[in-house]
């Protein structure tokens, strides 16, 4: 496991400041009228976010970007005024009020915001104040999903991360942020929201050019280590581009790992890739459509079991700063959290199994 994590850790920690300029080469065959939909990309000035934003724009999709810094947006998103008149909204996802205006009329939300660890000169990792995984990946993401639900959006697509079956991994423990734990909880809350979702969990992100590699899908970190090392941000953006522009039944209701084989050949047929992601353990899940793709019943379990706020708080802070809220000894608290994280991943598997051969209606509440 450690060996498996190593390349990602290297990739995740590499201070890659240069935005990948790789072209998203193959033209997308647009599903009918997808150009009339409104797509909001959050984290649009990010490395994957800017690739996706620019690709959607090039396809003629009515795309908006939520950014924190209009100057950075001008550099990366080729906007001039970089204001709402050009579909660029400045806001912070930890501030719910900032999300109202950008969500008005949005059909699909693509969540590409993320926390990131910083390093002191002595090598110690930390997160900036207000920038912890709990605040950004969990609370900030929940704010986005809630705002999207209120605005009547039809689908939320999320880039999370592989490795959530390994509690307390090196990455998870960086800066005491528990990033994997919070990303997993954020997945669970999206799945439990009732909003049709697409959750992509990439392996280590790299800035190599896209459209060269064969893309590989898996579930619960089951790709063999030689296949699960890296995937270019440009290919994650291409996958999202197709998920957004194909009819939503291709990608809705899916949660899968995404990695790549550098030997190729380049993946061209994304409908087939999504179909493959839907087929798991020898069985195929029907396409997720409409509100039922959230499969509320099972997601409710994931959500209720995965959220252990008191326990998470213990571990996030490393100390009990609220003895009444956190009555367990540290080991118990950690054990509990580990158990919940595993449970959430197992339940996500069961959720898929429940769909087998069943009518969506059966799980509608
Ligand atoms: N690195 C890896 O190897 C790896 C592996 C698996 C999964 N992932 C995940 O893949 C996703 C994409 O990664 P990436 O490297 O493309 O991301 P990235 O470049 O780090 O972009 C993150 C974006 O989030 C924005 N953001 C952060 N906090 C925000 C806040 N409070 N309000 C609004 N925006 C905020 C940032 O804004 P600014 O542009 O203003 O900074 C940035 O645009 C992330 O979720 C990442 O965790 C990464
Ligand atoms: C797209 O929508 C318009 C109406 O908004 C309709 O006239 C047109 O036929 C649609 N195109 C396709 C390919 O369905
Ligand atoms: C905004 O982005 C510009 C260009 O990338 C950068 O120089 C500036 O420091 C950023 N401002 C803040 C407040 O981060
Ligand atoms: C590293 O530096 C930070 C910030 O100055 C400090 O808080 C921390 O205690 C240091 N860690 C070690 C191991 O020296």
Beta-strand residue percentage: 15-25%
Radius of gyration: 19 Å
- Could you list the spans in which at least 5 consecutive residues all have pLDDT below 50? 1-26, 286-327, 354-365
Q: Tell me the number of structural domains.
A: 1
Domain NAD(P)-binding: 43-245
GO molecular function, one term: oxidoreductase activity
Signal peptide: 1-22
Keywords: Signal
Summarize this structure briefly.
The protein has twelve helices and 14 strands. The chain has 365 residues and is of the alpha/beta class. The longest helix is centred in the last third of the chain and has 26 residues.
What's the arrangement of secondary structure elements?
Elements lengths: L1 H12 L24 E5 L4 H12 L3 E6 L2 H8 L10 E3 L9 H4 L4 E4 L6 E2 L5 E2 L6 H18 L4 E5 L10 H4 L5 H13 L5 E6 L1 E3 L7 E5 L11 E3 H13 L8 E8 L8 H9 E2 L2 E2 L11 H11 L2 H9 L12 H26 L10
Parallel strand pairs: 1-2, 1-4, 2-3, 4-7, 7-8, 8-12, 9-11
Antiparallel strand pairs: 5-6, 10-12, 13-14
Bound molecules: NADP nicotinamide-adenine-dinucleotide phosphate and 2-acetamido-2-deoxy-beta-D-glucopyranose (NAG) (3 copies).
Keywords: Signal
InterPro entries: NAD(P)-bd_dom (IPR016040), NAD(P)-bd_dom_sf (IPR036291), SARED1-like (IPR044163)
Organism: Cymbomonas tetramitiformis
């Amino acid at each position: 496991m450690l060996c498996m994590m190593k390349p990602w850790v290297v990739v995740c920690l590499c201070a890659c400041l240069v935005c990948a300029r790789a072209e998203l080469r193959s033209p997308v065959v647009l599903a009918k009228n997808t150009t009339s939909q409104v797509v909001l990309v959050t984290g649009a000035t990010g490395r994957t976010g800017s690739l996706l934003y620019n690709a959607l724009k090039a396809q003629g999709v009515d795309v908006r970007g939520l950014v924190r810094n209009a100057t950075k947006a001008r550099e990366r998103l080729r906007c001039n005024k970089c204001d709402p008149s050009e579909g660029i909204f400045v806001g912070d996802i930890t501030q719910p009020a900032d999300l109202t205006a950008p969500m008005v009329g949005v059909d699909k939300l693509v969540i590409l915001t993320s926390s990131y660890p910083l390093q002191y000169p002595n090598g110690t990792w930390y997160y900036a104040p207000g920038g912890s995984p709990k605040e950004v990946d969990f609370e900030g993401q929940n704010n986005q999903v809630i705002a999207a639900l209120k605005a009547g959006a039809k689908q939320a697509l999320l880039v999370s991360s592989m490795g959530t079956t390994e509690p307390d991994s090196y990455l998870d423990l960086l800066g005491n942020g528990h990033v994997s734990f919070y990303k997993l909880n954020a997945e669970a809350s999206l799945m439990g929201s009732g909003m049709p979702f697409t959750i992509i969990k990439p392996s280590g992100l790299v800035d190599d050019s896209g459209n060269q590699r064969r893309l590989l899908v898996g579930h619960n970190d089951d790709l063999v280590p030689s296949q699960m090392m890296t995937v270019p941000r440009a290919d994650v953006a291409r996958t999202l581009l197709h998920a957004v522009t194909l009819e939503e039944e291709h990608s809705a209701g899916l949660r899968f790992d995404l990695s790549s084989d550098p030997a190729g050949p380049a993946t061209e047929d994304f409908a087939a890739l999504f179909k493959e992601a839907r087929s798991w353990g020898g069985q195929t899940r029907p396409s997720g459509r409409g509100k039922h793709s959230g499969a509320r019943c099972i997601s409710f379990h994931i959500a209720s079991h995965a959220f252990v706020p008191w326990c998470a708080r213990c571990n996030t802070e490393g100390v009990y700063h609220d003895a009444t809220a956190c009555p367990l000894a540290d080991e118990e608290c950690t054990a509990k959290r580990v158990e919940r994280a595993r449970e959430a991943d197992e339940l996500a598997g069961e959720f898929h199994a429940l769909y087998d051969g069943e009518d969506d209606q059966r799980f509608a509440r």
